[in-house]
Amino acid sequence: MRLQGAFVVKSRYEELIEQKWKSTIISTCCPTVVKLIQRHYPEVIKNLAPVLSPMQVHAKLIKQRHPDALVVFIGPCISKKDECQRYPGMADYVLTFEELNEWFDEKEINLSDSTEDAGTRCLSRFFPVSGGIIKTMNIHTDYSYIAVDEMENCINAIKEISQGKLENCFIEMSACKGSCVKGPIAGKHKVPMITSQIKIAEFATDKNKASDYDIKPNFDLAQKVKNEQIIFQPPDEAQISAILKKIGKNSIADELNCGTCGYSSCRGKAIAVYFGKAEISMCLPYMKERAESFSDIIINATPNSIITVDSNLNIYQINNSACKIFGINDPHDLISAPVSRIMDEFDFANAFVTEEHTKKQQTKSLSLYACPRSFL
Fold first, then answer.
1. Where are the beta strands (DSSP E) in 64-217?
2. Which CATH code is given to the segment(s) 237-285?
3. Averaged over 92-111, what is the pLDDT?
4. pLDDT for residue 369 is more than 50
5. pLDDT for position 305
6. What residues form DSSP beta bridges with 144?
7. Is the pTM value of this prediction over 0.85?
8. Where are the alpha helices (DSSP H) in 229-345?
9. Domain boundaries, the chain
């Protein structure tokens, strides 16, 4: 029955080409391609053939003959699940081959001993392979017939159509390389690409003749494809500035554009934060400043006297307790000054060499710890 749906779809494509419905016509069998155009290239929706997919058509054919039937589509495609939900009243359920295999395993059903039956040999069996739709069609000499598979190739083709570079073309598009025969959820019995194509060709044609169905459905085949593009309104200058201030960027001079967050500029990072694509904490200078600020609070709150120096033995940090010992009124007077101005620098040099903290008794009740900042 699915093959009958494919025949009906290709027949409608032929009618559209005969009528010269559009100069460039894109097939609508692949729901991923349709969704791609809806979301990102809505200007090309007008080129999508207004035809139901083979799954939808064969589901309608089944329900027309058996109104109470539940229709289950089985295949290697995840997108068919979305198509089933978006267009109710046709296929009721969609299973992937992987899910079917798991079901067989659960029920201990083994198909290895079953006799393989090719079933009806017809051209519509070509549909699952890249270029298969075109193989089933009667060729109109005024049109070029092109098969495009894989997302990148489809996107490039769509861009050409959008730019008006193509004329009198029927383009068969499939998101998967090799089309449906190489769908992502093919299950455990995956067959190599060429082997799959040969096998389908054997099932699709008889040695003596190439035949197909002769069906003319009495229901509407039209597919209405809506524009689903999501347009993001970028943040204004005030919103960007507010986010930048939260990460300590109060002026252009503060915008280091170091790139460690993954964005080329601080403004780009702020825009990503606005859209919820990044966290404010994803900023190395900001986190470093916060960590140092937090360490300053701890160092100044401790009763121990602490002095930290850089690799040149210049004072980087001195807390309140140390200032009291050395009679220093303003600690800023010593920042960046040689530690030798207030004490013997040997202890600090020894700390760098041994990579261990040193401890020196200054009074009976107070100790001094030197923490070298060799990374500065």
1. 72-75, 93-96, 144-149, 169-174
2. 1.10.15
3. 89
4. no
5. 79
6. 169
7. no
8. 237-246, 266-274, 284-301, 320-326
9. 2-204, 237-285, 302-373
